Amino acid sequence: MRIAVAGTGYVGLSVALLLSQHNEVHALDIVPEKVELLNSGKSPIVDPVITDFLEKNASGERPLDFHATIDAQEAYTDVDFAVIATPTNYDEKKNYFDTSSVEAAIVAVRQYSPHAWIVIKSTIPVGYTQQLRENLDDDYILFSPEFLREGHALYDNLHPSRIVVGAPQNDAESVEAAHQFASLLAEGADPSEASRINHDGSTGIPTLVVGTTEAEAIKLFANTYLALRVAYFNELDTYAESRGLNTREIIDGVCFDPRIGDGYNNPSFGYGGYCLPKDTKQLLANYNQVPQNLIEAIVDANRTRKEFVASEVMERIKDVQNPVIGIYRLTMKSGSDNFRQSAIQDVMRQFKANGIPVLIYEPTLDKLDFQGSEVTHDLSEFKARTSIIVANRWDNNLANVGGKVYTRDLFCRD
Ligand SMILES: NC(=O)c1ccc[n+]([C@@H]2O[C@H](COP(=O)([O-])OP(=O)(O)OC[C@H]3O[C@@H](n4cnc5c(N)ncnc54)[C@H](O)[C@@H]3O)[C@@H](O)[C@H]2O)c1
Asked: Using a 6 Å cutoff on CB, does residue 7 contact ligand 1?
């Protein structure tokens, strides 16, 4: 199969590499620097499995049929499938996802491959694919939600929790193409996945071919559930901290119930990262006129949590003369290389709104200024100059100043 992938971010690059084990894959990005890096065998993102795949491909140890380009004609001509993995940021003015990059990529693909199956992997509003098919009068568009975690993008595609592909259920040709695409993803997965046993007793990777609107809903409801869980344990922590209780003991006691389960229960400053904040807001926008309480509460809970964290920090330094608040890393998780929508940024804004200067320690930032605040790469200077250090995630680098660190990372895990 000849396959094109639009966008070489977390989603596009991991899907492209996965598929290039058994297919000819042409990945296109509009950022030339990313394409140059890829063509020199280097990853533009921090992801150990992606790095390993690219290095082994470059050295010839494990060759892939993978090509990166900025040239639409080269990437999109005569492909069987075109996967769209471009950004869908939340537009705060329109209260909806900005899907313009998806549409731009589809127009570009159609110019060179009028009959290819287009599979949208970007996260999109519920109902989007059906609407797009109608607007473009195009019966060859499918949607397949992506569930990967940043930093484990290719690992999660090699070991997928499930494969979901959306196609109009009354269109046999689309349903067949959806099954074909699901098979391509399964073929690229680690061979051990074929014999895995699932909680329902089934074997192999659970695969669902459903309606496009159901597939879109699966993605947004899954992420909103994850946000709910984070928000729940954060709110538990807010209660415990306010009442002087031991949060860790409470979470341990709650989570030994197998119906609740352990994991995804470590308090933080709020759910963040690229997807959860925007996907919860988009789902809330999709509810439009449908009764709900919970979805709105999940969105609101995140703001309340960050306000609580900011006020707790400020309370601790209220008697300090000329305080400086240290922000230890802008990233959301330890080991992450990006800080898109990280919770600590909103917390930080509240310090600044209260006139308290902040000093940021962020070694991955090449500038010494971030949104008007000073950045340092010198950890000793950072520790010496700050009155309190605010860290969404604990790091042993902070052990010698542990007494002035404010974190809610009680289990030292993501
Ligand atoms: N990051 C995640 O964990 C994750 C997980 C599941 C789903 N998603 C969804 O997948 C989509 C992509 O997310 P991402 O994290 O990979 O984004 P990203 O920002 O890491 O990568 C997107 C890439 O698309 C490129 N691009 C933009 N416009 C383009 C165009 N017209 N043609 C070709 N390339 C173009 C950008 O230069 C960038 O390299 C989003 O809708 C996101 O919500 C992301």
From this structure: yes
Q: Give the domains, in start order, of the chain with CATH numbers.
A: 2-210 (3.40.50.720), 270-406 (3.40.50.720)
Over residues 82-118, the pLDDT tens digits come to: 999 999 999 999 999 999 999 999 999 999 999 999 9
- What mean pLDDT comes out for the span 343-359? 96
**Given ligand 1 and candidates 14, 224, 274, which is best to mutate, with the most ligand atoms within 8 Å of its CB?**
274
Q: Which amino acid is at 371?
A: Q
List, for residues 140-150, the tens digit of each pLDDT value: 999 999 999 99
Beta strands (DSSP E) in 184-341 are: 207-210, 325-328
Q: Which residues are annotated as a binding site for NAD(+)?
A: 29, 34, 88, 123, 150, 278, 340
Mutate which of 15, 28, 29, 118 for ligand 1 pocket (most atoms within 8 A of beta carbon): 29
pLDDT value at residue 336: 73
pLDDT tens, residue by residue, 203-255: 999 999 999 999 999 999 999 999 999 999 999 999 999 999 999 999 999 99
User: What mean pLDDT is reported for the chain?
Assistant: 97
Kindly report the protein residue whose alpha carbon is nearest to atom 36 of ligand 1.
Answer: 7
For ligand 1, atom 34, name the residue with the nearest CA.
7
Cβ–ligand 1 contact at 72 (below 6 Å)? no
- DSSP readout, 13-80? HHHHHHHTTTSEEEEE-S-HHHHHHHHTT--SS--HHHHHHHHHHHHTSS---EEEES-HHHHHTT-S
Residue 12 beta carbon below 6 angstroms from any ligand 1 atom: yes
Return the active site residues: 275
